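Lecture 7 notes. Example A: sequence first, then its structure tokens.
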Amino acid sequence: RLSMAQISFLLVAVSLDAVRAATVQFLDSRFTFTSDTTGMFVSFDCPADKWCGMIISGNLEPDVFENGDTYILARHSLCDCTCCSKLKYNDYPDHTCPHPSCCNSSGRPVGLRSFPSVMGEGWSWAKDRGIGGPEGLRGDGSCHSAEGAEYPDQFEYAVIENGRIYANLSLPYGDIRTGYNTLDASLRAVSFSQASIGAASFDGGVTSLTVGYHGKNAFASCLVSGTEICDCSWPLNKITKNCEPMNDPVDIVAVNAGLADAGNMIGVHAVLLAAIAFSWW
């Protein structure tokens, strides 16, 4: 018998297929978009041994650290914030949580979890280095259980089948949530991420499903509106071109320029280049 989560995912997947939605592929992960007058909808389809994520900015700049609505499909460990604070002056990637030495991933849930931003409110590198502020993925957000009643609207269990993990995300226009951007159909930067080579492992190298340090060349960014998915580049070009309709059957392969330089560029319908020059996240 199918669980309610599996039924819900299949219903949305059938709906997305019916409207021939556009899909952005980054590394081994696929993010399928569709939209109507009420908002956007995204289905995550990621490998079961690697976490993946999406960050939605309030404007044309990719807010990878601050002010970007952060959605992570992963196993979500439970961290000890006191332990995390002691990592502050370590070299990256061991200077920030979630980190295997401070966070317990055993038996923790796998699902889609949202954070108002990666680094949390009030964070700055000069003051805090890798230790995030309130509500951040790299702040005290990861010191609260994903399943806890304190943030009941910020976590949905994933469907895990045939080596893949799946989850659906609804992004209604005009929805006011504390700390999050209020979305509309205007153009904005959307960043995609997946655990890559060198990503942190919480199970002795078996998987990188638990979210932690992302590894090399783990980002791509695109410009997305309520009707189109447009060029990716770094920095993003604010004059859009090469746009693809969101509700057309389009496969878009987003390639980090670091991978492209290594000869790993591939294309399905369109190749979107993105160079994310961050050494950590």
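Example B, a different protein, same format:
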Amino acid sequence: ILAQACLLGPPLEPVCSTSKRTPTPPNHRATVVIMPSIKLSYFDIEGPAEKVRLTLAVTDTTFEDYRISREEWPALKETMPFGQVPYMEVTEDDGNKLSFAQSAAMMRWVARKFDKTGTLYPADANASIDIEQMIGLSDDMQRTWVPAQYMGMGLHKKFGHPEEFPQKPEVVKALRETFLAEELPKYMNFLTKTLEKTGAFLCGANITIADLQWLAQLRYFTKGVADHVPADSLDKYPVVVAWMSRCYEVPQIKKWYNM
């Protein structure tokens, strides 16, 4: 069962000012910053591309949010580096072209290249280690969820089951209920303890890419779009829910989700 697509926020409008511009000092050349052209391709759902979209949004980076249709995917898949999406294409202001896959790589690249605050993904190793461990924890939880998710998506053959598998509905139900009862509480407890210590976001006073990855991941469990995963699955974890609310109050995130 796939998560619903996120809604794209309205385009930014130019800001007009009637105030006088400060004259350019003699011998001073004005600098014009030209942003690269970025195209992010993924299906019309949130999925692993959402953390990349959020990082682009939070850094106020303009990009083309291309949503791939099911009809065009088989042919497009053959052109992907690893046969998968999301996929990012970048044309820099000097004409240099970059293209790469892997959503985590994209998220880090965007943060390093476009974050003007230096806090979303700090370059300093000591400053970024908390971010990396929280991202690793998110990846750990995702690995525990994948069997329950993929089995329900008709990918049961990947787990050794035959094409004809009449027990699939019961197995999917058991896997997902077990995840909600055993695995989700464990990881939400880790997040709760971390947030009680930091008091704000996962790695301190500033939002980081660790928050963006976790937010994109946990939204799935609040939508009620997956069988046996009710929309109130996170209600037992008020500290986590409060943190999500703080994330939604970040202006760029609030705008991205039309809140």
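Note on Example B: The CA atoms of residues 21 and 30 lie 13 Å apart. The chain is about 45% helix and 10% strand.
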